[in-house]
Design goal:
Layout (H helix, E strand, L loop, with lengths): L1 E5 L13 E5 L4 H10 L4 E4 L3 H8 L7 E7 L2 E2 L14 H4 L3 E5 L3 H7 L5 E5 L4 H11 L3 E6 L8 H18 L3 H4 L3 H13 L3 H7 L1 H8 L3 H7 L9 E5 L2 E4 L1
Parallel strand pairs: 1-8, 2-7, 2-8, 3-6, 4-6
Antiparallel strand pairs: 3-10, 4-5, 9-10
Helix pairs in contact: 5-6, 6-8, 9-10
Amino acid sequence: MKLFVYHTPELTPTDRMPDCAIAVDVLRATTTMATVLAAGGEAVQIFSDLDQLMQVSEKWSAEKRLRAGERGGAKVAGFDLGNSPLDCTPEQVQGRRLFISTTNGTRALQRVQAAPTVLAAAFVNRAAVVQYVLKKQPESVWIVGSGWEGSFSLEDTACAGAIAHSLLQQTNLPLEDLASNDEVIGAIALYSQWQDKLLELFYQASHGKRLLRLDGHADLKYCAQTDILDVIPIQREPGVLVKF
């Protein structure tokens, strides 16, 4: 297995795709997606464009859809939800499809949607994602952080490091055999330093501070939990993720 970490979608190679791509947007898109599917959502459909989201979701009955829109960390006016996993209760999402567009996470998923296998990962479902990779043994794996509007984000790279760290422990492979770019080693080092104080890391992260200004402390606390959901959002068709 050859593991690569990319801090943002823009840093991924443009001339090839991996056997398995893992998109990460800890704060908050991929955390929200895993939470929706764990709570009984039918599927999550992603969009970069809000108008296209509205157009496609119009074809679904109001009882079977939820529209989630987030820009700059805040809910988009006129949408049912923003991007808070805490709003995704079973009462709200059961049997419904979430049509979602966010500032960063949906871009990461769209960048890798041509890969044969596409997963969405966060701290909340890290163990489930690791177990899937260990079972399927893809030859090449990309972990793609969403970043923030094209720039590095601490929390996504720390989560990439959490996945890589667990794979390293469970495969017993030498680091030089698993890590195929320097970013893997850097991500593991970042996670190793902060693994017992992830919430504190989120307070230091620029997007964590942004969410705190929007009264998002409860979201940060939820997103900092590790391995609480045994659910993997997996792409069934381009742009549509379902529960695995």
